[in-house]
Amino acid sequence: MKEKLIFDLSRKGRKGYSLSTNDIPELPLESILPSKFLRKAPAELPEVSENEVVRHFVRLSNLNYHVDKNMYPLGSCTMKYNPKINDYTCDLPGFSSLHPLQPAETTQGALQLMYELAEMLREIAGMAAVSLQPAAGAHGELTGILLIKKYHEARGSKRHKLLVVDSAHGTNPASAALAGYEIISVKGNAEGRTDLDDLRSKLDGDVAALMLTNPNTIGLFEKEIQTISTMVHNNGSLLYMDGANMNALLGITRPGDMGFDVVHYNLHKTFAAPHGGGGPGSGPVGVSEQLVPYLPVPVIEKDGDTYKLSYNRPESIGRMMNFYGNFAVLVRAYTYIRMLGPDGLRRVSENAIINANYLLSLLLESYDLPYPKPVMHEFCLSGDRQKKAHGVRTLDIAKRLLDYGFHAPTIYFPLIVSEALMIEPTETESKETLDIFAEALLSIAREAEAEPDTVRSAPMTTPVKRLDEAAASRQLNICCSI
Q1: Can you tell me the distance from the alpha carbon of 297 to that of 299, in angstroms, rounded to the nearest whole number?
Q2: What pLDDT digit, counting tens, does each position of 336-372 carry?
Q3: DSSP category for residue 314
Q4: Which end of the chain is flanked by fewer CB atoms within 10 Å, N or C?
């Protein structure tokens, strides 16, 4: 006969809570749990109906801005397409129920997925090998720089400088400094690309590597990349690529073919895994042949039809993350790549480039473009015209966009552009959405001219109005009742 579990919730002091079955005598809780863990009085919990609970959280989700609600025009690290099939595959019991300490023979499916993902990423970027360990783009940067450092140390070289272009993401110099390098900035030229003369003047025997983003943060491809590669390698230095903008390159060209020795991938951007609220992320690192011995342990290897974790890497820089990476993000990226295939990945980049240039063409009449077009996947406008003529700053424009129902683009970055508006439409936004977004920015430009106070006082339709930015930075208060 099946046992029926009975909960007696009548209350007679602490002994009133009981647990019994058909064959087991009733037991007072204090005989099971120490008395110090038992309540002396009932929990003061509100009695809330299901409707009220559901409405509360739906209202909160509606107050929040997310990619399922509207586009994210943030440049450089844009939150983009999050296919729902990715969540489905992540939820498969063979993936979601794993424990990282399980023996390898019980996790063959997960190991196979990671092995194949690393192979696909290796081929996509034209590298010799890939590590999936790093947990984010900046973590991938640090990993790549430590690999470069290990490479030079293995050759008895004590190079202590690392060159970083002036348009770089802020994490580039930060990661290099964390690895112990002296940071030397390389200037851009009038076209917004790397100044070869300035680079040449700073290449010496102390330079370990040059960190470069290609396309760079203003959306321009480094046309002289092979010349740059030759200059750097002739100096005995290595070439690092920040892969944050790789969604402009898929199936068109490969960092390895350009001469890069290290590249990190932002799976949470280029390969469609969620990236909001600071994570989760994943920043795998691809390397050229000479850096393979130094990759983090463990390395996933294939032996016949079996996959295993290899720790036998005497020259490795060691482990960069507990266990093997942000596995759920890896599953999402694997799903996305397998879903699209080689031709689909190329279309991703083609559409990213088309969308960026189309949106730019709509906005040129009202905003300044500091560097010449065409652009790749993103572009950087300047709000100088609005600031000088009407006293409306880029910050004001970004705040006003909230009233139009859009998240603001990246502002005041890169630092080489005054009053920067850095916009990336991504490959997954429709022409209709881009038209509506463009009209919002054009309307704000007209408002800045006709009624600048409206723009300067924005936002006006959000639950929280314009904050005192200076006071907020000094007295941060993240608690708010709405």
Answers
A1: 5
A2: 999 999 999 999 999 999 999 999 999 999 999 999 9
A3: T
A4: N
Structure-block tokens of residue 270: 């280029």
Instruction: State the burial class of residue 100 (Cβ atoms within 10 Å of its Cβ: 0-12, 13-18, 19+).
Output: exposed
Adjacent-strand bridge partners of 238? 209
134 and 284 Cβ atoms separated by less than 8 Å: yes
Q: Phi/psi zone of residue 279: left (φ > 0), alpha (ψ -120 to 50 degrees), beta?
A: left
Give the pair of three-digit tokens for residue 452: 């600048």
Give the integer Cα–Cα distance in Å for 265 and 138.
10
Instruction: Find out whether 460 and 402 touch, Cβ atoms under 8 Å.
Output: no
Confidence of residue 12 (pLDDT cuts 50, 70, 90): very low
Distance (Å, whole) CA 230 – CA 197: 14
- The CA distance from 49 to 24, in Å, is 35
Give 9: exposed, middle or buried? Use CB within 10 Å, 0-12, 13-18, 19+.
exposed
Q: Where are the alpha helices (DSSP H) in 404-468?
A: 431-450, 452-456
Burial readout 260-283 (b: 16 or more C-beta within 10 A, e: otherwise): bbbbbbbbbbbbbbbbeeeebbbb
Domains of the chain, first to last: 6-37 (no CATH), 84-340 (3.40.640.10), 349-474 (3.90.1150.10)
Classify 212 in phi/psi space as left (phi over 0), alpha (psi -120 to 50) or beta. beta
Can you tell me the distance from the alpha carbon of 218 to that of 349, in angstroms, rounded to the nearest whole number? Answer: 16
H helices then E strands: how many in the chain? 16, 15
User: What pTM was estimated for this model as a whole?
Assistant: 0.86
